[in-house]
Amino acid sequence: xTIRLVVRTLSEVCVTAGALIVLFVVYLLFWTGVxxxxxxxxEIDRLQNTWATGSLAPAGPSPAPTASAPGGTPATAPPxxxxxxxxxxxxxxxxxxxxxxxHKPVLQGTGTGVLKKxxxxxxxxxxxxxTGNFAVAGxxxxxxxxxxxxxxxxxxxxxxxxxxxxxxxxxLDRAPFRTVPTDTGVIDPVPKESGWTTAGRYLTLTTxxxxxxxxxxxxxxxxxxxxSPAEQGEPEGLSG
Length: 240
Fold this sequence. Notes:
Layout: H1 2-53, E1 89-94, E2 103-108, H2 112-115, E3 119-121, E4 132-137, E5 158-162, E6 166-172, E7 177-179, E8 201-209, E9 216-229, H3 236-239
Parallel strand pairs: 2-3, 4-8
Antiparallel strand pairs: 1-2, 1-5, 3-4, 5-6, 6-9, 7-9, 8-9
C-alpha cells in the first residue's frame, strides 16, 4: 500500500510538473508574442498619429547651421532636436529581408520593459542618420520575435528607418558577426571588427545567439546610403 501511494504521488507530481512546463512554453511562445505584437502595433499607431498632426519632432540628426547673413554676420543656427525620451518610440524600422510586412518601432533605451515593445536604441550611441553609430538591439525570441530571422541578413541588404520627416536607407556591409555579450566595442563609433576605418554614419543591429539562448550575440553593421524627405514617398527598394 505504501509503495502504491508513493508511486501514485510521484506520478501526480510528474503530471503536474509536465503541465506547468507546457503552460510555461505556451506563455513564452504565444502569449508574450501576442502582448508584444499588440504593444509594437500600439507604438507604431501612436507615431503615425503624432506625425499626422505634426506634434512630434523628427528623430533625425541636428540640421546644419545656415549660411552667414549678408555683411558677414553669422546666421542663427537652427535649434537642435530634442533628445530621445527614455522608453518612447521615435522611428519605425523596415527590413525587407526579414519579410515583406516586417516593420518594428524603435524606442529609446534597451531595458527589459522597452524591448517588450519593440527595438531599443542604445543610449550614448549616435542619433538616427547622424555621424557616429546608431546602434539598436532586439529580441531574437519571445516578445514578438523581432529578430528571429536575423541570421538571414546578407551583405547588401537594406534597412530603412522613418522618423516622420525623412527616410534613412542603410546598407549592410557584411553578413552577421558572432561575438560574446561582453564585447561592447561592437557599438563603438567605429567598431573594430566592422571593417570601417574612419568615422561615418553607421547602423549597428544586435540580438542574442543561439536562437533560444544568450551566450553570444549576433551583430550586423551597415552604412547610411541615402536620406530622402517624406514628401518623396517610400524608398524604391522598400515599396518594390
